[in-house]
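Appendix C reproduces, verbatim, an entry submitted by the partner laboratory led by Prof. M.T., so that reviewers can inspect both the input and the predicted structure.
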Amino acid sequence: MAVTAQMVKELREQTGVGMMDCKQALEATGGDLEAAIDWLRSRGLAKAAKKAGRVAAEGLVGVAEAGAKAALVEVNSETDFVARNEQFQGLVAAIAKAALQTDGSLEAVRKAKLPDAGKDVETAVTEAVATIGENMALRRSAAISVDEGVVASYVHAAAAPGLGRIGVLVGMRSPGDKEKLYALGRQVAMHVAAASPLAVDVGGLDPQVVARERAVFAEQARGTGKPENIVDKMVEGRLRKFYEESVLLKQTFVIDGDRSVEEALKAAEAEIGGPVKVSEFAVFRLGEGVGHEGDSEG
């Protein structure tokens, strides 16, 4: 594949690396953007590129709660002006409430009835497009429920209660005091918004992500000229660091900065009155990934 100026520009935007190095990386990897990022990383020229949020989309993320269940939706609009519109805000809040009655899948939410409206979500969005005069779409949705405990939420950059630019849900399992459990869960949700973990624990990480990191670390380590047995130890050490940065329970808890999230949960068990576990989390950042080729959500 011929390397174009646009490909070089995109790689440079994602990595911050110079044009010539970007061109060389793309030529070495046949124009594969992801492989080119790894090529640059393995040579110490770039850190892992974060694609999230590089292409902006307006709208709102909405959260609705019902004790042991909560739902999260993202509704996109063309402009921030519409996102500040009370009618649009009311629509997003109503869609989030409708999502509580579903399994959280996009198709189920689209077909769900809006509270007190007598119409489904898809119809309501279509009518809102005609009324407000701007294209909008329900892009994605999620729901979390627990059999024992609470689902806590956090909304960052709130435009109205339960509506903002980042929404987080955290499933907190415990037989203990629900009010105290929720307060802890909200802190964990704030941590997720700030620290961007990839999974609750190591076992929850995408095996392909781990394999990719391992390959990059191995190439970096071999570049030192050390024997293979030393290379293996270097790779394992770097993987441990990756886990500490990427896995929720192993991350340093941003609320106090002195211990891991796992240690903070353990310390809270006495006050809450029972063992505490994070079952799962979901986080939507407004516009995340919109405009990337292959983005099919919504």
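Residues 51-56, 291-298 have pLDDT under 50 and may be disordered. Additional entries are available on request from the coordinating office.
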